[in-house]
């Protein structure tokens, strides 16, 4: 992945009336061709950030550059470099997808010969429905149509604000496939989500924002490595007595006649030590399952701190 920076945010602040700091000194950079996840609980400041980029909210202070254009000096070029897919589905019910994309392209001043309507419909899997009225499309198709609308002017960066909020599992998969196919053609993607599993599966890097502060910014892999806790589940034939020397390093989740579930820090304890203690008591181990931390664990730990 090349490291051309396509979005640079320096000391971004947004203060609403009565000193509500929606964003506090936000600093981040997004590289060309990556899927960048912006995570945080509701009210963390994710939407404020997107609204500032979209030109719907003015920032209080700070510097934003998009695709080499400064938001204050070249707002039109900044908007032309971004395709923003909002959370709320609002598409005109009386137009067909094809007509809607043609109109949207016209609004952006894309000349007829330069329009890529067919390609976009194909990309978001709506080619079959190109000439159906939008009111007859399923909710999922309408979501994909919003993505399509954001692509008409071929923006190098697409921002998806909670694209899968409130959609079912199958639809979520289709939407995420659409997002991956965008990345495959070289589009940089910024994704806000509060579904941690989605970010884990999709994003190259993740920024976590809480109460307007950026509290973590890492590659997804590094973020997961940071947490050393592992969970082990033993299926056994009788209850295990755990000795003191292990106890201080183990957290017991369940311990009964059939199973022992513990969590421990990988850097302090070796799994073999736990197995030795169980075996020393003539307890049979029928099965061992281990779970590594996921983003949920990281998220909770960071927000607590």
What features would you describe in this structure?
The structure is a single chain. With 305 residues, this protein is of the alpha/beta class. The protein has two domains: 5-225, P-loop containing nucleotide triphosphate hydrolases (Rossmann fold); 228-292, 2-Layer Sandwich (Alpha-Beta Plaits). It is built from eleven helices and 14 strands. It has helices at 46-54, 75-81, 97-107, 117-123, 139-149, 169-184, 196-202, 220-226, 244-247, 271-280, 295-304, and strands spanning 5-16, 20-31, 35-39, 61-66, 69-70, 82-85, 157-161, 188-193, 205-210, 213-219, 229-236, 250-255, 259-265, 285-291. The mean pLDDT is 88.
Instruction: Provide the spatial order of strands within the biggest beta sheet.
Output: 6-7-8-3-9-10
What is the annotated CATH architecture of the largest domain? Answer: 3-Layer(aba) Sandwich
Element string (H = helix, E = strand): EEEHEEHEHHHEHEHEEHEHEEHEH
Put simply, the count of helices is 11
The CATH top-level class label of the largest domain: Alpha Beta
Task: Report how far the terminal alpha carbons are from each other.
Answer: 32 Å
In total, the number of domains comes to: 2
CATH topology of the largest domain, by name, is Rossmann fold
Spans of at least 5 consecutive residues whose pLDDT stays below 50 are none
**General form:** elongated
Helix percent band: 25-40%
The description of the largest β-sheet is:
6 strands, mixed
What is the number of E strands?
14
Radius of gyration: 24 Å
User: Structural class, please?
Assistant: alpha/beta
Which percent band covers the strand fraction? 25-35%
